[in-house]
User: Fold DUF3090 domain-containing protein from Oceanitalea stevensii.
Amino acid sequence: MGPVPQTAHTFDWPDRLVIGTVGRPGARTFYLQARAGARLLSVALEKEQSAALAEKIDELLDELMAADGNRFSVPDEAPVELVDDDALDQPVEEQFRVGIMGLGWDPSTAQLVIEAVPAQPVDPETLEPVGPEPEEVLVVRIPVGAARAFAQRTREIVDAGRPLCPRCGEPMDPEGHVCGLPDGPQ
Assistant:
């Protein structure tokens, strides 16, 4: 991935890690937000990145649960006391827009490690990044129970968008929907 970013925003055992949204369904901006004490950091990401992160976290936790007789005590469901349904902390100030996300496991601390690197402009011909390497990265380390709760909340946030058209499967806007299928809602 090249040289190490100059600024690493690191949150070990944060007080809070959530994905939330700003805006109405159909025009929501997704944010990954970490808080430790008075430190608050928000990075913008796509709905698809949010959904993929939740899916990968659950896959990793399921693998750990099945391996070595679950020696890391991975819960199969989000522990009730760790479920966080509150809104994003205010103010939501975008540090950067996420380009690449990484997910890892640190067995020495029994924590999942989430890394988010800013998006870089790409050459439309080669799709290779252009310009300097990103100068910052967000690194968050969370224990398995918090990770399970984070993934559950993220799925709920992603699913709370616009309802899908029962005919064409596309999201419907509150102002109306032009269905791509014959005889669909107009």
